[in-house]
Amino acid sequence: MSDNSTLVLFGAKGNLSRIKLIPGLFHLDEAGKLPEEMKILSVGRQSVSQEDWVKTIKNMLDEKFNNQYDQKVFERFIKRNIYHANLPDDPNAFKKFSELLLNDDRFPKNLAFFLSVRPSDFALIVDQLAEEKLLNEDQYWRRVLIEKPFGTDLESAIELQASISKHLKETQIYRIDHYLGKSALQNILWTRFSNSIFEHMWNNEHIDHIQITNHETLGVGERTQFYDATGALRDMTQSHLLQMLALTTMEKPKSFSPDDIRIEKIKLLKSIRPIPTDNIENFAFRAQYKSGVIEKEGEVKGYLEELESNKSVVETYAAIKLFIDNPRWKNIPVYLRTAKRLDQSGTSISIKFKNSNKDKKMKDSNWLVFNIQPKESTYFEIQTKVPGLNEAELRTTKLEGINRLENDEKIDAYETLMLDLLEGSQARFLHIDEVKSAWSLVDPIIKYWAEKIEKVHQYTAGTSDPQESKIIFENDNQFWREGN
After folding, report:
1. Selected catalytic residue, list 27, 167, 209, 240
2. Is pTM beyond 0.70 here?
3. How far apart are CA 407 and CA 180, in angstroms?
4. Domain with residues 182-407+431-472, CATH architecture
5. CATH number 3.40.50.720 is the correct assignment for the domain at 6-147
6. Could you tell me the residue ranges of all domains in the chain?
7. For the segment 309-356, what is each residue's pLDDT rounded down to a tens digit?
8. Is 240 a catalytic residue?
9. Integer CA distances (angstroms), 263 to 48, 176, 181, 225, 431, in order
């Protein structure tokens, strides 16, 4: 159980708070994971009475849990929750906020700040917290959780780090990547290092290539302006997919402590070979979806129609090829791809083993797949003989282990990460060296695509990977794996 503390939610009236944070904290309270005297101070930019805030919380929980939750837990949870208005036109807003936190006996003095705000406000809020002495750890701990993205490129990430590190030690900074809170992603490390059968074949002698995939049937929707300033590479590859790569390919840590896991992830990310700037087109491919048909949705608009502009060259499909320069993975390509509006949704890590059969008439295809979502499972694909007189007739057999069983505890990624924040565990948060390494890898592609402003390849919504994306493959025997 963590120390009694006050969790301060900046941006408490936003979408993330409504869908994830408040319901997640309620679930943690229901599970008995929150200390008895812990308080939740929700900070917004509008004046709201405590009575109205209670009604708002109830609406959030009703929506999330379909009105099915324990009323006794609800009453306990409501007593934890207090709303505070930090009015934007009040020059003394943070001074009043500080006086409330430090002088009101209702609030434990260990403070965790969750910044669910615009990225442009991260540094400003940290400055204001520091000015009011809310980050000093003379007697009590202070932690700051910063939502994704941490910068928009390497330069801005370094600038943001320089700004907040004036007031915070690295041990106080919790840079979130909510994928690291997913139990299916955590399962990768335990599966790799708790099963001795994997170690001898987890290398370039046995593995042909690795594919890390995030596909969605959903489009950009109402996020057109945000997405057009971001794109698929920044939105998914720089953070989530590179973290999945690190967990899949890192060396075994000395222990499963937060520091030892981070050390190995950082080593791995730093060992990824920079993409050659004179040959980017063979290492990175981008495209945009155009109008098409999505199952269960019917006809959908193309990205440019949603944006109401035909000038954008921002990618909704991004695929890149990387190589890891260490003895284990030398010359083995790792393919990362992410897309909107494809024919199927899913996040997975697929490991293709080399063919051992020299007889080309004999089918030989073995895959190990970690499914992250929507179905949490791990499976092998092997070739087995079809019963009958034909001696050479084979078929693919799936040996599958379901990671989440019916009665397993269900916990959302944000619940895991908020609990880690309160308990002071940084294992599932990003170190600044990880952030810098990730931006260093994708920055040359971002710059190249920004300068190359001719029309981007179009793919029809509701179809599979564009054929043209295969330009990044190392050989003709490699192909995009479909399905989960």
Report:
1. 240
2. yes
3. 23
4. 2-Layer Sandwich (3.30)
5. yes
6. 6-147, 182-407+431-472
7. 888 999 999 999 999 999 999 999 999 999 999 999 999 999 999 987
8. yes
9. 45, 17, 18, 37, 9
